[in-house]
Each structure stands twice: as structure tokens, then as C-alpha cells.
Amino acid sequence: MHLAVSPRRAPNQPRNTPIPEPFEIIPFSTEGWVFAAARRLRNIFRRWDADAIFVTTDREHLIAATACWMTRSGSVVRWTPSGKKLEMHISGILAAWLTKTAYLFASETDRRASSIPKNAIESGSAELGVDLASYPSNGAKAPSPEEGPVTEKPDGAPLKFIVCIYDPTSRGRAATAIRTMSMLAPRHPNLRLMIVGPGSDDEDLRMQAAALRVLHLVSFLGERDDQVNLMKDAYLGWVVAEADTGAYGILDLMALGIPTVASEGGIAQRYVAHGISGALYPPDDSASTAAAVAGMLQSEESRLAMGKAARTRVAREFPESTTIEGFDRAANSARTRGRRPG
Questions:
Q1: Is 238 exposed, middle or buried (0-12, 13-18, 19+ CB in 10 A)?
Q2: What is the pTM of this model?
Q3: pLDDT per position as a tens digit, 248-300
Q4: How distant, in Å, are the alpha carbons of 3, 247, 289, 292, 316 from that of 262?
Q5: Engineered SS bond to 212: which of 182, 234, 253, 325, CB 3.0-4.6 Å?
Q6: What distances in angstroms separate CA 248 from CA 55, 106, 165, 279, one per listed residue?
Q7: 3-class secondary structure, 290
Q8: Are residues 333 and 313 both part of a single domain?
Q9: Helices (H), strands (E): how many in the chain?
Q10: Which residue has the higher pLDDT, 66 or 138?
Q11: What CATH number did the domain enclosing 22 receive?
Q12: Considering only CA atoms, which of 255, 227, 224 is closest in space to residue 319?
């Protein structure tokens, strides 16, 4: 859970008085009993003015709504991850009854596909995007022995790394990537697969790689702070994660100018133009996937063109400003329209 907070107002200052300082985003742990977490959140309100509390799950929603109800301050913005519909169960419905809530989605398509409570403050979207200027512009370059990773082959040919973006929901899709690696390895001995993201160091994945005799070709890196640095030297990107992790993984790769491989049945359809900025493969079809990846490995000219197209598309359609503006609108709407009298 995250809170958008502002410095405390003077005791006699009305709550709806604008504050010139920008609000700050701070994290908050939701561990423990719901009511206990709500009381901890209430204590934070004594130090800060909580303009909006951003939540994702029913549990977070109930904690935030309870704290707002106890203090008669603050409002809630519920974020629905990219590619998902809003799903609310009993605790979420109770939370929406306790405190009016604004609903925010990663796209207008997601918003229209969701059923939004009638007592919502409002619903809107914040299209996910990235700041292209913060990424190096030489992604998808042809590797060289001087610039590329350390080689293992006596002929001096550089290793070609595929970086696979993983989340805990994507074990089956990661298994497809590992099977594809086993099919490609005999004809591409310099190919390596790096799986990175929360849960990617799972022992079951290692066992699958070992069973396919490619354990020495696959690295299981877990969650890393330097994920983008790992991506920038990749030959190809492979995104098996979904929701926001998958969306940002794809956007990072595209901003680096690296073609992306992903399942055609997931979030990637929104970002990857098949055959133009990457390749989309049928779910759980290792043979088709291997053929698509092999084609990208064999044509350096095509790979570089895809990387350039991917970077151009990010600049044109997915700037970071759209994300910031969407969250800013939601926070301000929750603060002004969701405030309580008195």
C-alpha cells in the first residue's frame, strides 16, 4: 500500500486549503490483523495529511478505508493492475461502503471492462509509461567481444543473453521459455537464458531446467535491484510476467530498444506489435515459440529494426507523463471530492 501525503496544515487551516508543497508518496506495511494495521495507519495521519491512500487488494482497501473512517480524513484510490478487471469481494465491498473510493486503471480498456461501484468518487485511467530519456539509446546493438559479456567459446563468439522477466504467477510460461531454450541450444551454443524477478530462483524451475539438460545454460537470479542493467545488454527480452510487472518489463525492454518475446494471450498484446517490435507466440506452444525466437536470432538486421521500432513506439505511445498525470488526477480528485464535511 502507498500513501500520497502532504505536510501538516496549521490547526485553524481548512482541510480543503491548497498546499503549495508537492505531496510525497510513502509505503506502508499491511502485515497483521486488519484493525491493528488500520490503527497504525491512523497514527501516520497524526504526522501527515493523507490526501489519498493508494491500494490494490481488498485487504489493503479495507485497512485504508477503516483508517479513513476512524479519523474522518483521507480518501482511498484503488488501483487495478494492468490487464486486469476490478474484482471486489466482501471485504472490498465493505471498504467501499466505509469510505468513498476513486478507482484507477492502467488503461481505458481495463476501465470499461470492469464493473465500478455506484458510490465511487470517480473512475479514471493512468496509462503506464516510462521516461525514455533515462534509458541508454544503444539497446539491441550487435554485440562484440570487446563490449559484450565474457565468452565461453574458443572461437571468441560472444554469448547471446535472453533476459526473461518473471513473477510468481508465471511458472508455466517460464517453463515454456526453458523448453524453448532446450530446443534452440544445439544450434545456438552461445545462447543463454537469465530469468529475473520475484520468485524466479524457485527450485522447481531449476528442476525443470535440469530435467531438460539446460541447467548450465539458464541463470535463476531472483528479485534484483539492477534489473534494467541486466536488460540493457540482452540480445532479446522475454516477458512471462503479467499485470504491472509484465507491463513495466515490456516497457523497459522497448525503451532499451530490445525486441520482446511474449505470449499472445496476455498483457503483451497491448504493447508488442507482432513482427514489428517483437514476437507474440501461442501460449504453451514451445515449437512455435522456438521457431519465432530462432528467426530473430538468425536475422541481425531484423532484430535491430525491431528494437528501433520498439523504442520509437514507447516514445510515441507510452510516455511516463501519462502515468504521472493519471495518478495526480486520481489523488487530487480523491482529496477534493472525497473529503468529509467539517
A1: buried
A2: 0.85
A3: 999 999 999 999 999 988 899 999 999 999 999 887 777 888 888 888 888 88
A4: 33, 11, 9, 11, 21
A5: 182
A6: 18, 11, 10, 17
A7: helix
A8: no
A9: 11, 12
A10: 66
A11: 3.40.50
A12: 255
Looking at this protein, which amino acid is placed at residue 221? L
CB 7 within 8 A of CB 19: yes
Alpha-carbon gap, residue 337 to 132, rounded angstroms: 34
- In the numeric block, the cell 482511498 is attached to 76
Residues 214, 97, single domain; the answer is no
Task: Say if 342 falls within a structural domain.
Answer: no
The answer to whether position 263 is within a domain reads yes
In the chain, the number of structural domains is 2
Does 292 lie in the same domain as 161?
yes
Give me 213's grid cell: 539438460
91 lies in the same domain as 137 = no
* 78 shares its domain with 204: no
The parent domain of residue 70 ranges over 2-129+321-337
Supply the CATH number for residue 179's domain: 3.40.50.2000
Whether 102 and 168 map to the same domain: the answer is no
Residues 72 and 41 occupy one common structural domain? yes
Pairing label, strands 101-105, 2-6: unpaired
Beta strands 2-6; 49-55: pairing state? antiparallel
Kindly give, in sequence order, each residue whose CB lies less than 8 Å from that of residue 298, ignoring residues fewer than 6 positions away. Answer: none
Contacts of 87 (CB under 8 A, 6+ apart): none
Residue 53 covered by a domain? yes
What does the chain come to in residues?
Answer: 342
Question: For 176-191, what is each residue's pLDDT tens digit?
Answer: 999 999 999 999 999 9
CB 140 within 8 A of CB 161: no
Same domain membership, residue 312 and residue 240: yes
Q: In the chain, which ranges are E strands?
A: 2-6, 24-27, 49-55, 76-80, 101-105, 123-125, 160-165, 191-196, 218-222, 236-239, 260-263, 278-281
